[in-house]
Batch of 2 targets.
Target 1
Amino acid sequence: DAGVTQSPTHLIKTRGQHVTLRCSPISGHKSVSWYQQVLGQGPQFIFQYYEKEERGRGNFPDRFSARQFPNYSSELNVNALLLGDSALYLCASSYGQGDEQFFGPGTRLTVL
Amino acid sequence: QQQVKQSPQSLIVQKGGISIINCAYENTAFDYFPWYQQFPGKGPALLIAIRPDVSEKKEGRFTISFNKSAKQFSLHIMDSQPGDSATYFCAAYRNFNKFYFGSGTKLNVKP
């Protein structure tokens, strides 16, 4: 069985641009969460989606948004990119909202 | 405000030794405390987790000790091996819609 997949693997953008990151959960999983991991720090929670509805949100500005599709895949969108948005963006899926999370390998975003 | 504080930042242990990583939290509403292991270029992987109604949980060489009154929990890795060299994160969850991670401990097990 395939694990959580994320695309793209790496991405380079310039300040002010917009970016879309994608996540496919493990088959059968209905919950997807997004995290930002700055180099040398622990992951910071951004969003959780369950059954296509937002169920949790971390302390991130409105430039960050996400959605979950009927097939339970998810997109994270970041507008008006700042240098400080450079990080590894992790997606994690779980069967239900309260179940063990399985993390993908992440998307490395560099903002120049 | 950092919700979960983790120490030490880095740790060097000889093969066969015990690795101990500590975490402290403030919010008594947290109800699930997992530990994750992360290798370079990979996402974190769940190692072991505990709920606050239990004081200790052991799985193989990994043990979580939980002190509810002190709001602290720790990971013990017995008989540490070079393959255990990785970054370890503690985390605390609240209602499974709020997740907070520690800052990480880089463990290096010397052969």
Note: Chain B touches chain A through 21 residues (CB under 8 Å).
Target 2
Amino acid sequence: EPEVTQTPSHQVTQMGQEVILRCVPISNHLYFYWYRQILGQKVEFLVSFYNNEISEKSEIFDDQFSVERPDGSNFTLKIRSTKLEDSAMYFCASNKDRVSNQPQHFGDGTRLSIL
Amino acid sequence: SQQGEEDPQALSIQEGENATMNCSYKTSINNLQWYRQNSGRGLVHLILIRSNEREKHSGRLRVTLDTSKKSSSLLITASRAADTASYFCATPNSGGGADGLTFGKGTHLIIQP
């Protein structure tokens, strides 16, 4: 079964540095998402992306964050000037189309540790 | 407002017993979804129930939805050690389509062998 893949599995970065998290969504999917999960807390929506633009974003997704689909397969989340509180698991997800009631498919996540 | 709040936060039962988890939400929805998360892994979709459905089954899973009470329950029958995981309910942010999801805090289920 097709999977969403994320790299790296673990990223350690110094505070203030930029980090790029990478995702390869399922190939025929058109909608892409980023979520984060701070240790011990619930999964939080960050942003959704369709047709090369942001469809929806949460209050968490401020100017520090950006997303991009640089080619036909990758979907990236960039965090500029990282802070300690950005330490979390970041999950990418994809959805096939705009038909309602479709489940999202999640990757295994990138654990981001800010030192 | 908090959307998709589960209870209990933690549940420990013996293998073979049934496990029931509940979820409440606040806004109107057109579907509610349940996901499982094994430790250190991503979320795996279990089941989706539409707002016009009251009950849905998938294998050992049974989900109910009461839109008048804005609540849902997930029942896992004949539990197995492999069912040990965290379970989350999730609702679309704006009601449906390809929206992002709002997750609850989850129920951590432990199945004792």
Note: The radius of gyration of chain B is 13 Å.
